[in-house]
Model the fold of this input.
Amino acid sequence: MSEALIPFSLKDAPALIERLLPVQKLSAEVFKERKAGAGQTLVPLGAYWKGRKPLILNKGCILGCLLPATDDQKRDLEIFEKLMAMDDESFVVRCKHRPKPATILATLSIASVAEYFISDPPNRLPESAPIDWSLPELNNVKVYWRDDIPELERRQLEAQMLPLEPYRKRVEMAYRPEEVIDTVHEHVWGAVNSHLKTNAFSIPELVEQLGVMRFGRTPRLADTFSGSGQIPFEAARLGCDVYASDLNPIACMLTWGSFHLVGNSLGVRADEENKQRSIAKKVQAEIDRLGVETDGSGWRAKAYLYCLEVRCQQSGWTVPLLPSKVLSFGKQAIAELVPVPSEKRYDITVRSGVTDNELAAAAQGTLRSDGKSQDPYLIHTVDGREYRAKISTIRGDFRNSGGINGNNLRLWEKTDFNPRQNDIFQERLYAIHWMKPKSSGKKFDYKFTGVTEADVARERVVEKFVEKHFAEWQEKGWIPDMRIEPGGKTDEPIRTRGWTHWHHLFPARHLMLLGLLRSEVFNAETMLRLARILDYTSKLCRWTTSKAGSSSPGEGGRTGGASDNPANVFYNQALNTFYNYGCRASLPLLQLFAAELSVSSSFSNAKLSCHPASELTDNADIFATDPPYGDAVKYEEILEFFIAWLRKNPPSEFTDWVWDSRRSHAVKGEGEDFRRGMVAAYRRMTECMPDNGIQIIMFTHQSGSIWADMSNIVWASGLQVTAAWYVVTETESATRKGSNVKGTVLLVCRKRLGTHKTSRDDLAWEIQEEVAAQVDALTGLNQEAKGLYRDENVFEDADIQMAGYAAALRVLTRYAVIDGRDMTAEAIRPRVKGETTFVDGLIAFAVDTANQCLVPQGIEKHHWDRLSGAERFYLKMLDMEARGTKTLDNYQNFAKAFKVRDFKALLGDQRANHARLKSAVEFGRAEMGEASELNQSVLRAVLYAVMELAKDMDGGEVLAHLMLNIPNYYGDMTQRDLAVELADYLAKHLEAIRPEEASAARVLRELIKNQRLG
Done:
């Protein structure tokens, strides 16, 4: 029975996330959400924002901060998993097809069928199950659940029907929890309320009650790097009061959209979407009136294909720059160049339905490259003579006496929207993709054609229309007049095309369409929808064509039928210029503009501001942030692409924001400026939270200096690390080949209270004890949860490694003074390149101490302590491989942990989801020399011996080689003991993955044990 809520009863209770988090299951859920692509809840607001933390991850973090850690960790875990819809009963609802009563009765053993089911006709069911429905007496008998059976009992019975398979596999076949959010938690409240002493019957009710018990009120969560709004949206959906802010107005706009568009009532949404559809219809009607997208015979343009054209200095011919002449794999359509010698130029014709050989030949166009990072060059043939010219030569690239790179491209002026006649790069329409409704009216026929005189005439109409309205529209802010500021990403269009203002990136057709849209009633939702289609406009949209069943980079991993479309601009978060590009016509763009947005829930408990994180003025109980640590994506630059269109005359909801990227204020990259910005931000957050407040800092774990940097920031901000978890999401795609990995560290922090002091010597013992206790606690929970998790572990070695790091940092960041030094001052002291600071040394010491505790089973601690980093890495990863781990991320993390310089030299496969170590046979004679990190190691000698035995070499010769390869084999008997132990370890761990080598290792073990010495 639930008790009355007592405010602050959990005020000082540790949070669940400080003790445990089922990161393996959470990683599977995160991966599931990521794979949904455009089906993710907030992605339709702006797919151009890639740095999103999955909603399920945010939910886990927020609940983990509110739920208490009790003395019953197994029950804590069960309750958390129920609330996350990870338990068996929840999967009954998440399964896409719930089992029918007849199927249940045919499968399960049930002593009394009548306790659960009734039949029609009545009383026709056997007393017990399983039931054989093929029996004649059961013909035409229908079976139903009894009306008085509670949902929990139904789900418990149906849960027995779930297949016994790994959790990740189960998740792949299920709905995401948020897709069944209205019903998935119906069965959990009895268990939840009993364990937590609450009286809740929904997640928002539970969150409110836990907030009262912790903070005396509904919990308030803040995110000062809100980005696309993923964290604050999920917090508001869960029932928190939310404060969100970001320096960038585009980030704030997306966050606003998550609150007011996705997070709104169906009635309000329907009314607003009708308004947006009306705007789209009005703009489409104006374009149709101009007659610039139809051919007069029922065909409407779907996309226009443009290319650059240059004059070949050698031949004097004007040549279109086409990387490929293939227009469509599905239609087997190609462009063909037809010489016009009298004018020294080419006509371009289009043929569809060509042969496979013709399609293959068309893959090479007039623009080629001899390999990655090689300069592209123009190639064409006139009268049998081949001409080649590098694009850099055509462009006139040079370096001046001051070492500054430049070229001869004319810098476009503010009034330009097309190339001038004497520009080096001209632009040419060379093909059109048409669509026409089928007679049924539901689908379309499609075709590609070359460009006719009528098409050229329509192009001139568009250009004249834009020219007529150009000055007025710029003045009113309906098309951009903003200059492109130089930068790491924004230099690209300036350097490669001479474009100096943002409107130069857009073809005349898109200036027309977007200007017309911008001129309409421009409220906050229209502004957000305009930004959404901006990602699918401009000359930065690469033309893509794919075969049926394949995927195109930048198209979200699409599979299915053949596709022909311009890609979106920010498929890889850069401003890439192309030699040919696709221009979507108005119909598909306006359909995207007016497309319905999903409605997740309705809430009004959110506040949004646009300012730097260090200028925070609102208090919060929980801070959950995803700061831009080492972020390769320069949002402060690329988002100016959108700001240029939206900055003038913003709607009333956005007028208080600074419509500028404020690059100089952005926290970005690494180095001193980054550290100072981060410390200012997190120090301010710490000041704005109560003594029992909690922070979750999320960051991508790629840099080798990550722990030193983040620990310095935590220390200098007045925080103490209390836990760290690593959630893995690994992907392989055409834009990120093979070894791409992505994962998130969740760093859990509290305010550092008091001024505790210690010495370096005392720290050593304290860290060892803390890490050992942490490792024991997690391995112990693995054992306790065996029934709950079947044969899977709650925590894998990588999780325990991360928790060990956190335990070491928990001790370290507890102290304000170490060896008489003020750690806050030490943490913010500027770094000198190459210098190891006092703080760096302490963190390295803490991490090394944590690693000492990660001894794999089967290796004695005294032997482990003697092994090199490379040996530890190989043995640890072999242990993980034996248990099915094959994600490259784990190899990277443990390589850093064991300070392996080149771990890839030890790998047989480096693909993200198929990584593995080299076998003994694959090593062969490699990694034996002085340059190798395994040089003169006992492990390398043992692997060499295993290789020889696997190749059927005589045992005596193998032993002789082993003694030569192991230094001081006779003088130090522990070397021989270690060789025996390593051979035994290999034999056991290789049995399931390489049985031949396992057998060789067993033979080697016995050879060494039975060897006579002396």
Remarks:
- The radius of gyration is 33 Å.
